[in-house]
Design brief:
single chain, 445 residues, alpha+beta, Adenine-n6-DNA-methyltransferase TaqI, Chain A, domain 2, 4-stranded antiparallel β-sheet, 4-stranded mixed β-sheet, 12 helices, 30% helix, restriction system, DNA binding, Restrct_endonuc_typeI_TRD_sf, Restrct_endonuc_typeI_TRD
């Protein structure tokens, strides 16, 4: 239990005021017991001092101020007094909530006066770090506690001296106060740097996402597991299925089909992680072209037609799509999970996943990359791999000002296929990392 002993010898239990337990060596104290609140200066009238009105005090989490030079006899009456290293905290709304609080530094002759809308804290004995106390005053819990005690007319409400005097704060050992202050300053300096470099940070985040995708498709994002079924076994299942379809006469043998394998030196032309295989995209996906719908037959209802303009932010939006109410060959039907890609125009290579349960139709100049067997290639890994190849796709587009890519070009893209379980781990890792980066990016808005 926590008790408080008063000057008259009385003792009071204050357990209900204690917000949390403190580490060993820490103690609770009221600001009024460790500081002089609103002290007065007793100095010569002709001494030059600093004069600081409210606009000269920074707000937020910085600790700066400017000043004007005045003689003491011109500012000693009708203004708040303070001295070097005193802490000034705004008491009036909205300055209090905006954290207009500061440690007064480099004052002319060590003294100053300023706005009457300040409470001044002067620490005693040097055992309490001024910066530690200032950070306490900038905490949200301190601000909200002060707001609850506001008094005065609307728009002119103030925090009284009693709130400051009675406010309980945790006191660490002095050396730990210094360590805490240094850590806070380090973190906030980093935050301020990020704030000042938002535009470059957006680009950094974009580059980080690109690097994550690059690491993912090279087998460097998650650890390999020797117990996973190798990708070569998955590919053998594909080849066996193809052979059966050829025997049944359902498909013809592709004379250009090849098998990529390791030589005696146990390596491909590039180093590939154990258990992975290099294949052409067409081995695990089919790429379908869209249909040239006549715009004169567009309808206000029916089945949505997905055009290039509907591929937005790596997904498919049907908010502004057009509709078709006639029967269409099933080759042009889009299903949930299909990856669509712009095949021509200024946005060639942009991609989006169709996530709706409703069917849709594929318009011309839009390609559909559909997985043949999702027990061999998982949807998420397909998306990660092709997004990581977007720069490559755009660089290899043809047509100058109006670039184009063909379905054959997409099908012939070589991909590195990990074991299926590793694909799942890669997808989950990328998801977590992208969520972190997206959270950071949203905070910059």
């Amino acid at each position: 239990m926590h008790y408080e002993k008063f000057a008259d010898g009385s003792v009071k239990c204050i357990e209900d005021e204690i917000p949390f337990e403190l580490p060993d060596g820490w103690a609770w104290a009221r600001i009024g017991t460790i500081c002089i609140i609103n002290p007065r200066n007793n100095i010569a009238d002709d001494l030059e001092v600093s004069f600081i009105p409210m606009p000269m005090i920074s707000e937020g989490y910085v600790n700066t101020h400017t000043y004007e030079v005045r003689t003491w006899n011109n500012v000693k009456s009708g203004f708040t007094h303070f001295a070097e290293n005193d802490i000034g905290i705004a008491k009036i709304t909205p300055c209090f909530e905006n954290r207009k609080s500061v440690i007064f530094k480099k004052l002319v002759n060590g003294y100053g006066a300023g706005t009457t809308e300040l409470h001044i804290l002067r620490t005693l004995d040097g055992t309490i770090s001024n910066e530690y106390l200032l950070w306490i005053a900038k905490m949200e819990s301190f601000i909200q506690g002060g707001v609850q005690t506001f008094s005065g007319a609307v728009g002119q409400q103030r925090v009284g001296k009693d709130f400051f005097s009675q406010y309980l704060i945790p006191i660490p050992p002095h050396n730990e106060q210094i360590r805490i202050v240094n850590k806070i300053n380090l973190i906030f300096n980093f935050v301020i740097t990020m704030e000042n470099e938002k535009s470059s940070l957006h680009e950094t985040i974009k580059q980080a996402k690109s690097k994550i995708l690059d690491l993912a498709i090279r087998g460097q994002l998650v650890p390999q597991n020797s117990d996973d079924e190798p990708a070569s076994v998955l590919l053998e299942r594909i080849r066996a299925e193809k052979e059966e379809l050829i025997k049944q006469g359902k498909i013809k043998r592709d004379k250009k089909e090849s098998i990529i394998f390791k030589g005696e030196d146990n390596s491909y032309y590039d180093e590939i992680p154990d258990g992975w295989s290099e294949i052409a995209l067409k081995d695990v996906c089919e790429v379908r072209n869209g249909y040239a719908f006549k715009s004169s037959n567009f309808s206000q209802n029916g089945t949505p037609i997905i055009r290039i303009s509907d591929i937005q932010n790596e997904t498919i939006s049907i908010e502004e799509c057009v509709y078709w109410n006639q029967e269409v060959d099933k080759r042009f039907v889009i299903e949930k999970g299909d990856l669509l890609i712009a095949m021509s125009g200024a946005t060639t290579g942009k991609m989006g996943v169709y996530k709706s349960d409703l069917p849709a139709y594929l318009n011309q100049r839009v390609g559909n990359v559909r997985i043949k067997d999702d027990t061999i290639l998982c949807v998420g890994y397909r998306d990660i791999y092709l997004r990581g190849m977007q720069d490559f796709i755009l660089k290899n587009a043809y047509g100058g000002a109006q670039p184009n890519i063909s379905s054959k070009f997409i099908e012939d893209i070589q991909i590195l296929l990990p074991p299926y379980n590793e694909q799942l781990r890669i997808v989950e890792k990328v998801k977590i990392l992208f969520q972190i980066l997206n959270t950071i990016e949203k905070s910059l808005l």
